[in-house]
Known about the structure:
By secondary structure, the protein is α/β, with parallel strands linked by helices.
Amino acid sequence: MENFDFWCGTRIIFGRGTEKQAGEAVSMYGKTALLHYGGGSIKKWGLYDRVIKSLNEAGVKTVELGGVRPNPTYELIYEGIKLCREHSVDLILAVGGGSVIDSAKGIAVGAPYEGDVLDFTLKKAVAKEALPVGAILTLPAAGSESSQYAVATHEVDGYPYKRDVVWENFHLIRPKFAILNPELTCTLPPFQTACGICDIMAHVMERYFTSVKNVELTDRLSEAVLKTVINNGRVVMKEPENYDARAEIMWAGSVAHNDLLGTGRQPDFASHMIEHEISGIYDIAHGAGLAIIFPAWMKHVYKNNLDRFVQFAVRVWNVDHNFYSPEQTALEGIEKYEKFLKEIGLPTRLSEENIPADRFEEMAEKAMKPGSIKKMTAKDIVEIFKLAS
Ligand code: NZQ
Ligand code: ZN
């Protein structure tokens, strides 16, 4: 196990009706909030009204900025920064999924900074301060509600770079609180639910697939989260209003990406970095992109750490350990994983999303290239795209 410095400072307020506590949670940070949300789903089912009521009761004044679109860009971040300055906003309250929360995080680091917020993603400056962010989560997937990451897309010479909003001082953007009411997720369409399941599993697996040895506790915790998401994922796909199953998935989504499961180990994160090129250019759902890339990445790298892929197959997918052919066991695990993704209705090939081969080299060249199981090269990434075709 490697040394680590783990600090997850997000207060989690979990359960039925918890959005009513929004006013109390916000007022700990001041009296003016920027209410940030997406394309309107929060208004359709009454969440918006309940949040406004709670904020009013707590004496919190609100400024509003809706319209965040999936795979967020910087236009709205700039608007939010302007509003925060004009109205001396004390906290940004993000109500929605990962895209809304990430946009809120961009606003949070941009508002107190005199220069261009893009300086942080372009590595021209390091963020030193940020407005506090609070989240009311409506889609368990990205884990942004308690993660120290945010992703947004900016263009340079016509290429859409989907990149981290900050590369240092990550702790600045970790939300101060996250309100998690599983009831709010019952309105999710099946495809979004499935994308969320895939993303949550991917956050665990990016950390599970490490080359660091002797990390048994985090291995076992990760396997528990994966099994919980698989079991309850199957339930919510059939029974979208099953509160208990929705609750398991929602809590798993935060645990998967608050870095607890990354303690003492080097994560891989190659699949995520490759996927960001896909959703950056073709604007597909991040979870769907991962369903295409992750199995292909596995097929490309499993021989680099066969033992770990055997462990994944046996412990997560209940594959019989074939001691005469560990390779066979590992491949069976990958096959079961891919089958599960199909079962919940996700694409597992680029062609299913009409993504052609013409930009493979370009995307491979531009993509970030991390890797613990295998440090990626552009050549590896092209091979992965071919396996995903
Ligand atoms: O815009 P609205 O109207 O809210 O509709 C959204 C959106 O169309 C809808 N939705 C959300 N909650 C709903 C609902 N529809 C019905 N009922 C509800 N309860 O779902 C659609 C997708 O929302 P979005 O926020 O884009 O999805 P998700 O939460 O998957 O976030 C994806 C973004 O997060 C990034 C992804 O790359 C992508 O840009 N990620 C952020 C991470 C982080 N900050 O730590 C880590 C992840 O790996 C990921 O990269
Ligand atoms: Zn993800």
